[in-house]
Amino acid sequence: MKILKRVLLVLVILLVLLVVFVRFAVHESRPQHTDDNNAEIMADRLLEAINAEAWDSTKYVSWTFPGGHHYVWDRTTNDAQIKWNDYEVHLDMDEITGLAFRDGTELDGRKKSKAIAKAWEYWCNDSYWLAAPFKIRDPGTSRHIAVDEEGNEGLLVSYESGGVTPGDAYLWYVDDSGLPTGFKMWVKIIPVGGVYATWEGWKDATTGAKIASEHELSIGGVLIKLTDIKAGNNWSDLELESSPIRL
After folding, report:
1. Where on the phi/psi map is residue 243: left (φ > 0), alpha (ψ -120 to 50), or beta?
2. Sign of the torsion formed by the C-alpha atoms of 169, 40, 162 and 135
């Protein structure tokens, strides 16, 4: 037993040292903004490149996030059906309330609350990887031109409120047309600042909005690939006869 405890202690120490090493070796400080006069011009170019006007008029969206998180989103009511494993939640995103089921049986009390909380947590993360470029002017955001440690200029979007992690910031990089190519992140969920993620695999929705389906992270080569992306103004565009959301 003593030997096992010593081994576990050594493993914990090694893990801590690894985290410290990675943080100091890879960590990048959040950049200071430089030229704020052009921030809104850059934001306009980005939003035009992804056809944000078409996104704003898109009524229904569905997609699957890695790990088997399935979403159907009614943007006209801001409600969603969220499914993972044997759970299914019908969520009102404005009030963070709704219905929860497990194996088809409706949950109540503490089990219902936990399922709804988990669905909301998934939603805040997974929907961001779908729609982040369209959110650069959300309420509670600020935009600045900033330059990273490698001398690359981007649009720094900071979130002062909203979601489950207010205070996060993203430095967006765009190509000559204004289309996003990736961003660096300063977020609470990742202890290392400046982690880069690509925005690629762009797909055109039936409404004309552009949606990125692939994101590769600079740490560990993690690939976040969204699948079964469908968006339109009729449920048939999602290959559904009617809304599956029961609220």
Report:
1. beta
2. negative
> Does the CA dihedral 224-228-234-240 come out positive or negative?
negative
Interatomic CA distance for residues 233 and 174, integer angstroms: 28
Copy the structure tokens of residue 69. 């998180």
Residue 34 near residue 145, CB atoms below 8 Å: yes
By C-alpha distance, which of 226, 157, 212 is closest to 186?
157
Q: How far is CA 88 from CA 122, 227, 246, in A?
A: 12, 19, 11
Residue 100 phi/psi, 5° resolution? -135, 140
Q: What are the pLDDT tens digits along the chain (247 aa)?
A: 444 434 343 344 434 333 443 444 467 888 887 767 799 999 999 999 999 999 999 999 999 999 999 999 999 999 999 999 999 999 999 999 999 999 999 999 999 999 999 999 999 999 999 999 999 999 999 999 999 988 999 999 999 865 556 789 999 999 999 999 999 999 988 888 999 999 999 999 999 999 999 999 998 788 999 999 999 999 999 999 999 999 9
Q: Which helix (H) or strand (E) holds 126?
A: helix 109-131
The answer to whether residues 193 and 175 touch, using CB atoms and an 8 Å cutoff, is no
DSSP tag of 233? S
Q: End-to-end CA distance of the chain, in Å? A: 54
Cβ-defined contacts of 96-102 (< 8 Å, 24+): 96/120, 98/247, 99/246, 99/247
Q: What is the pTM of this model?
A: 0.85
Nearest to 203 by CA among 177, 186, 228, 184: 228
Distance between CA atoms of residues 95 and 121, nearest Å: 14
